[in-house]
Amino acid sequence: MGHTGLEEKYMRRAIELAKKGSGRTNPNPLVGAVIVRDGQILSEGYHECYGQYHAERNAIVRAREAGTDLTGSTIYVTLEPCCHHGKQPPCTDAILESGISRVVVGSDDPNPLVSGKGYEILKKAGVEVVTHFLKEECDAINDVFFHFIRHKTPFVAMKYAMTMDGKIACHTGDSKWVTGETARAHVQKLRNHYKGIMVGIGTVLADDPSLNCRMEGGRNPIRIVVDSHLRIPMDSRLVMTAKTQPLIVACLAGQEEKAARMEQMGVTVAVMPQKDGRVSLTDLMNYLGQAGVDGILLEGGGRLNESALEAGIVGKVFCYLAPKIFGGADARTPVEGQGKSLAAEAWRFERTGLEILGEDLLITYKYKSQR
Prior knowledge:
With 371 residues, the chain is an alpha/beta fold.
């Protein structure tokens, strides 16, 4: 393995470490750090929880506790080191005090408080700085953070499981289960990662879901239901658990009496402007962004998925593909509604990942802007 090959190995290790903070760092980014000298890893760290040490400081403190001298070492870090006082003191200070002489960074920090300033401070102090190393791979772990800090609205990832012939349920509505256990366990990781989970009222009426995270040590997402006419049953699992796991129901005006009863059950009822007689998803995203929801896993049915695509809010798609065929002209598909009239007008995506999960495939896509 050549010099760069080894460096890639260290940065990929930093990416793996960063992912360990998933579900616990919002609204902060996921960051990992690996300190190396003469081909030997001296220390590692990652941002473990919001409000606690950042990755670089974690790695440096661990080295110090172990009595390891870091003079002349290189730190591989997935995101530009911060240089401002937030919940924690600047990581640039920790790096300069440690004796580290070279910093290799993946992503630039889009936060205007940092953006480029971290690099400048290090360079002025004589530290060698290498930027944009494995940038795409480092950027990919923080699509939520980057989107939220730039737009102040949640990053939306659409998720669905379908058969080889593109069905999410049989013509009877039965859908248990499209995919196998490995794929279903992976979905729980997504529920832990994204702060919010959003469905349409159709899904609630058909499945009476709980929308919790069934992963050991996982974080339950904030549940969001798009329910224009407030049809959600008062005895649904979502409403009954609203006091222990937050539930936001977005509806149109004119349903004050039921809304008041739901508020008493612990539900947050968000009255939204309408678009084409339904809740405006653009306004809902602004509302959720102001409420601090930085990322959403969209587990909607076909109608909500189409509305989300039409509104232009989908940034990523997780498509689980099962080795089965349901058939049926009337069987449900991931995106319904009218759809596009011309093939040339399709919503276009770019494949970013392909993973084998047991007998199923997970294909990941990111939205490809037409402009």
